[in-house]
Amino acid sequence: MGFFKSNQFKVLLGVILIACGIIIYSTVNTEENVLANTVSYISVPLQKSFSNLSNSAHDFDYYFKEKDELKDENEKLKKEISELRDTVIDYYDVKRENARFAKYYEFKNLNKSFQFVSAAVIGSSPGDFLGEFVIDCGYKSGISVNDAVITENGMIGVISQVNSVSSKVKTILSPKANIGALNSRTGENGIVNGATEKIRDNLTKMKFVSAQSDLQNGDIVSTSGLSGMYPKNLKIGKILSVDYDDYESSYYATVEPFENIKDIKYVFVVTDFQGKGELNIDLNK
Amino acid sequence: MKKSDFRLILRMFIYILEFFLLYSLEQIPGLSLKIYGVRPLILVPFFISAVVFEKEMYALALGLICGVLVDISFGTTLGLFMLILGLIGYLTGVLFKYFIRINLFSTMIFDFFVLAAVGFLRFYFSYFKLGIQNNIYIWNNVFIPMICYSGILFPVAYFFNKYIYYKLSEEWG
Question: Could you tell me which chain A residue has the CA closest to the CA of B40?
């Protein structure tokens, strides 16, 4: 009984009450959280540095693979390549960055009403199975929840959580994603919603397809833009097969995204576009 | 300021710095080796190995800090793992002060229990509660390997934090 009268017990009780207060505050205030923002101010620069380090190591590995392929063909250049190793690593970085921005420029020209924010992938949580990841831009860059996340090859997900300097992305592989989509060839509608058993194969599903639909393998699936949350005509992937789901009593198409979602390093977030919010149907609810 | 107080503050500072570094490292997809397609939880074993040596109130404080980082990493409601790891920290401090002898074997077994609890709660709040289909598949193929993988890393964490503790504690002057 002495424990319940001790200072230690009072401190413990105080901590529990404060933690409960934080839980309630976080539940009510999902848009902006002071504690999460404070931590992200410290952790994001650290994560960025480690992420760059990790990417450089990857490029280094790629360089060696390429060198091996050329070894038989061009033995004389081997020594020279070795001397230029550091320069080549930088070159790959710059080349990749240039290619990305060239495609971005092209994409921007095609979609003049889009407002973009460029972001780098800086992390993902261990134990995450749904392909979610964290990017290095937050609401300070104009990002908000449900903004479309794209690469030069099309849509890859939506923003699910925003902090001041970082955001979490829910990808099209996730069963939590609900993105209005259509078959670009026929205009038939469906909803892109990931499936647990397909995530490891980098595949997703287009659900609620009508029985009379004319979906064919190789058809391109793109965003429908019906909800007004995401721009329309953003490519999502191509259809691999059409099957019947006994559980949901409807047809679905297996869709292969144009990006290997788990290897993505840079993305663009569409913060604004013409027609945003015009039809207020929230498919995530 | 007493020498012992200075050592305590320095030790806590090192632990907090360690937690932030590990939190950042844990998040980088390509940095830790994937086994069976999963990455380990690095932060939790290091947290347990730190608090087994500390008094319960310091362990509580470390648990709260570690919990905030875990909440942000997992994307769970902020404060949830802060509360859970705070209480686990306090409990660990009490158990290892009065009831359990500190050695690699006992702390490693305890670490597995904590990892299983943290893994299960993450699974419950991030997958089961949200009604994600085939969640048993996720538990078997992601969480069980992750718990085992994280648990195997514990000796590294144990010897690392034991070194910090003995280098910066009164016993070693």
Answer: A126
